Amino acid sequence: MKQTVLIINIATILVTLxxxxxxxxxxxxxxxxxxxxxxxxxxxxxxxxxxxMFTQSYEEKVFWRNFIQIGMAFIPLANLWxxxxxxxxxxxxxxxxxxxxxxxxLLGIVLTFTNPSHDLIRKSVEFVEINGxxxxxxxxxxxxxxxVLLRFALMFxxxxxxxxxxxxxxxxxxxxVFYILIGFTLALVLLIVKNYLMTGYEEVFPMSVIFLIPNxxxxxxxxxxxxxxxxxxxxxxxxxxxPDGIAVLxxxxxxxxxxxxAERFFGQMTEKEAPPGHKKSxxxxxxxYDYSGYTAFLRAQPLWQKALIERKNGTVEIELENNSxxxxxxxxxxxxxxxxxxxxxxxxxxxxxxxNFRLERLMLKHQAEMDRHIQILNKHAYIDYVNAAxxxxxxxxxxxxxxxxxxxxxxxxxxxxxxxxKVVEAIKQCIRKDDLIGRIGGDxxxxxxxxxxxxxxxxIIQHILTMVQKETADILDERVTxxxxxxxxxxxxxxxxxxxxxxxxxxxxxxxxxxRNQVVFYDDQPC
Length: 527
What we know:
Blueprint: H1 2-25, H2 32-53, H3 58-87, H4 92-113, E1 122-130, E2 133-140, H5 142-168, H6 171-196, H7 207-224, H8 233-241, E3 245-249, E4 255-258, H9 260-271, H10 282-285, H11 292-299, H12 302-310, E5 314-321, E6 327-338, E7 344-353, H13 355-369, H14 379-388, E8 391-401, H15 404-411, H16 413-428, E9 436-439, E10 444-449, H17 454-471, E11 482-492, H18 497-513, E12 519-521
Parallel strand pairs: 11-12
Antiparallel strand pairs: 1-2, 3-4, 3-7, 5-6, 6-7, 8-10, 8-11, 9-10
Helix pairs in contact: 1-2, 1-7, 2-3, 2-7, 3-4, 3-5, 4-5, 5-6, 6-7, 15-16, 16-17
């Protein structure tokens, strides 16, 4: 019998040495360090158990029995540590519980080694002959049994965490977790059987072999699925490290999973809706897997929601505001999961912040469209905007600075540039946000007033004339005057820029011919 146990122990040592080698190679990866600790503890346990077989005295037997308790106490803890890292469980309560279990296990080891002085762990330790071999028969106290139950509880906690993780992760990672779960469950069952149904049969079935079982399953997964390098750990890491947000939606259009970037996005967008005096963010107060607030926010975005309802793959762009009122631009890439049998199982939305790109594009567009000297639309951009505008009653005018060539000839071009700048500033002060102003030529400008009747147009023109006099009063010795040709009651986009300009330019010609410093209205007949 002793020879059989010795063979089992030697085989266990060889397998454990191999697992130590495997775990050492993976020690820098997530889950690698606790796996290595578990293997090192198991190696000490099996080595101590083997040495104990060759000891003869009572004192030596007690020492090595105490020594292997280190492995028995801390291997379940190391396994739980591994499971927490493997599943990336960030539950703070669970981490505190592990530390508490570690302190209790350490206390149990200290009490075990000092038991002869207080008998808190063992009622009795007898040195008896069993099948021709001298060994120890130990009877535990209530406290000693509690420390044994703590080891079972740690194994059970590992199984529960793995089961919850198995349910939550994607299919591609479930098989890996399943193998680990099988190993831990089998080990727990065998521990219960060995501890309560096979008492006294340590020489037939060493307990160290039981703790080897889950680690064999872990090692198998290392080579079969390479789980310490790829899914689910690395998959989760890759997904969470992406700068783009990823939101997984069910067939009902409800958010069921988000990565960290998406969580920040939804947290920021829903946080600003918190009531006054609310100190914690919505993200902090929200249950980790309660995404109802995120779903409600998504459904309030019409373009995004429309794309989800239509179930079309593609990209939509949405504009949002932050707490400061600044515009933020996001591209939402949608992919819907529809089977060959037309079964719809949900969708994924990839959320990309394109604010900087959009602002850079707007800046470049602005630079391309603006006259860089006076910061109004250049001719080509102005024509495009007028042709694209929509207004039921628009007024269009062409403005020309009178005798501007003479100003350049007498005062020089720098002074002429100042005159142009001051005239433009005067016009800007008189128009509204939605009105358009552009430079058509050197000293010729055009103005389009949106939804503006004739009376309102006349009032704006009068204001322009007054402001031009005010802004240019100190530049030249003589007054700066302008001539304006106007056409009103025009419908956009029915009237093109070419048609509007032709009418307003004809009116401007009549104003010039009448002696300049005039405002002439073209016949108000619409296009």
